[in-house]
Amino acid sequence: MESKGTVYLTRERMMELEKELQHMKSHGRREMAEKISEARSHGDLSENAEYDAAKEEQGHFELRISKLEELLSRARIIDKNDLPKDAVYILSDVTLEDLKNGGTVTYKLVSQEEADFEKNKIAVTSPIGKALMKKKKGDIVKVVVPAGTLEYKILDVA
After folding, report:
1. How far apart are CA 136 and CA 156, in angstroms?
2. What is the pTM (predicted TM-score) of this model?
3. Tens digit of each residue's pLDDT (9 = 90 or more) over 57-115
4. What whole-number distance in Å separates Cα of residue 77 and Cα of residue 10?
5. Protein fold of 82-157
6. Phi then psi for 49, rounded to 5 degrees?
7. What CATH architecture does domain 7-77 belong to?
């Protein structure tokens, strides 16, 4: 598997991923083996769709383990307190005013692995994240997205 460089994670996210990996290795593999064993007991493997499905599920499961191991091997913990507070950086909470409709939104800039748009966590590698990086309170930011151009004023950086 090709390494893609350092991944920055919060301590909490790193612990979540480590816990998930540990659970998958300790309990998940055992559960997978039991599913395959159960399916195998249903007779002729050449005509056993349940067995085929269990083997395919096992392949996806092992791929997830492999991806988690690779990700964690490249991960470095970042702490918001270690970053400058004078501008937008990873882990910044940025309050924006949409200059077209007057609405406001607050985003937390995170690594791609932690991004969750439903929780207003956007990746520093996203179009909005890239446009915001190193900007300061009061700056106007234009972001080109597939739907057009967005224009924001940075109201606050925390």
Report:
1. 8
2. 0.69
3. 999 999 999 999 999 999 999 888 888 788 999 999 999 999 999 999 999 999 888 89
4. 5
5. Chitinase A; domain 3 (3.10.50)
6. -65, -35
7. Orthogonal Bundle (1.10)
